[in-house]
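Figure 2 data, in text form.
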Amino acid sequence: MNYLEYLSVWNKLSDEHRHRLQSCCTTKKFRKGEILHNGSNDCTGLFLILSGKLRAYILSSDGREITIYSLFERDICLLSASCIMNSIRFDITIEAEKDTEVIIIPSEVYKSVMQESAPLANYTNEIMASRFTDVMWLIDQIMWQSFDKRLANFLLSEALTEENDTLKITHETIGKHLGSPREVVTRMLKYFQNEGVVKLSRGMIEITDKRKLESLADE
């Protein structure tokens, strides 16, 4: 199977452009917790996710992590090849949040095809616009939403993604996603537990009242 057909623009490319992209691709597997890309100087290439889950995050000046978006099967990660975008640099880290398999498209090949192909250039711009929207949403959450609402939204999102109301996740991991110290996450989760919204156990969080959690998220 040609997994590059996952690209929605694939059928709009010329035979020559499809051949150039397909002939240079490599497939690689990453284990959970492994770093795929680190910083703007690491122009690794584009990742097309075949399976698993990736997390893109940035670091604060004091070393705290905050997730800016997650990537799932059939998503493409452009910021791991930020050198293809003139005058744009992203100090971003890409980590495998689960065991993940990706196709890697070398940056220089993708850029050369993009410069010749209007459909691929438009597709690339659409993805960049979508990621910018994700970042703007994150900024809005951090600046204007209280932490209890952000945490409630995060738990609901994780439950939806995992299709399970019992989440295997640590307080420290949640803190990395939300850019908050583990102690702050623990205090808020204990408040949620006292309110009957969740049940806490070692390395696990069970959502016991999803309707009330949704109410917290929407207040």
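Caption note: The helical segments are 15-24, 107-116, 118-144, 147-162, 171-178, 182-194, 210-218.
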